[in-house]
Amino acid sequence: MIRFSGLFAAFFIILAAAYSPAMAEDKTLTVFAAASMKNALDDIDAAFTMKTGVKVNASYAASSALAKQIEQGAPADIFASADTDWMDYAINKKNVTEPSRVNLLGNSLVLIAPKDSKIDDVAIGLGFDLAKLVGDGKIATADVKSVPVGKYAKASLEKLGAWAAAEPKFAMTENVRAALALVARGEATLGIVYSTDAKVEPGVKIVGTFPPDSHPAIIYPVAATTTAKPETTDYLAFLRSTAAKNIFEKYGFKFLLSPTT
């Protein structure tokens, strides 16, 4: 009986230790990030976890959808948007902390076609006739009313005088990666996505690049949410590091900051 009591006591000591504050402390961060950041950010999150031991769960979607989810109370520590408008929205709704905000990355807007398409070397400029180029096919991009890549695409085509004729030929998707997939599968003749998306999809090719002055600058701001865990500070610092810069640039992003060590 004495031996049994000792084992019983030992069991409760182990159980208590397992539920001690130190062991129970949450060492996981949740990042809500624009869909176009997935490949690069997955690598960066793995590097951050290896360095700090803090795990990172990333949720990727359109910036518009993520901003709305955060507004509705979805648990997130970091918001990374593909445009400044949705970050401004989150700040105005007091869902992210403005002092933590930095404009981290830049990107470019490209026209893509399936890898085996006969369309190639498209000169995109004033008077560009996208409707004629696509013929009876469809043009894939994300929702031009709310999703950043779609908004950039519409702005560019309006400035180039190509939007009115091309609008009926558009197939709108929920985010940029969905548009990319339509083109890769041959379900859309052309697509408008970021250059970084085209780079990671072997099923497509870039056939033209939109002039940077034809649309608002493509900027990815990041910030901590108002409910962020303390480890968020270290994560945001890591995003500004040379290690993160090298990963982002490997995937084709433009790093807009002077990196820290």
Number of helices: 12
The major β-sheet equals: 6 strands, mixed
As residue ranges, the low-confidence spans are 1-24
Structural class: alpha/beta
Major β-sheet strand ordering: 2-1-3-10-4-11
> How confident is the prediction overall: mean pLDDT?
92
Radius of gyration over all CA atoms, rounded? 23 Å
Structural shape:
globular
Helix content bin: 40-55%
Number of strands: 11
Distance between the termini: 61 Å
List the secondary-structure elements in sequence, H or E: HHEHEHEHEEHEHHEHEHEEHHE
**In percent, how much strand structure appears in the residues?**
15-25%
Would you kindly provide a brief summary of this structure?
The protein has helices spanning 2-18, 21-24, 38-52, 63-71, 84-92, 130-134, 148-160, 163-166, 176-184, 195-200, 232-239, 242-250; strands at 28-34, 55-61, 78-80, 102-106, 109-114, 139-142, 170-173, 190-194, 204-209, 219-224, 254-255. The chain has 261 residues and is α/β, with parallel strands linked by helices.
Protein traits:
alpha/beta; 41% helix; 12 helices; disordered N terminus; globular; 261 residues; six-stranded mixed β-sheet
In words, what does this structure look like?
The strands form 2 sheets. The protein has a 6-stranded mixed beta sheet. The N and C termini lie far apart (61 Å). The longest helix is centred in the first third of the chain and has 17 residues, at 2-18. Helix content is 41%, strand content 21%. Helix 4 packs parallel to helix 5. It has 261 residues and is an alpha/beta fold. The model is unreliable at 1-24 (pLDDT under 50). 42% of the residues are buried.
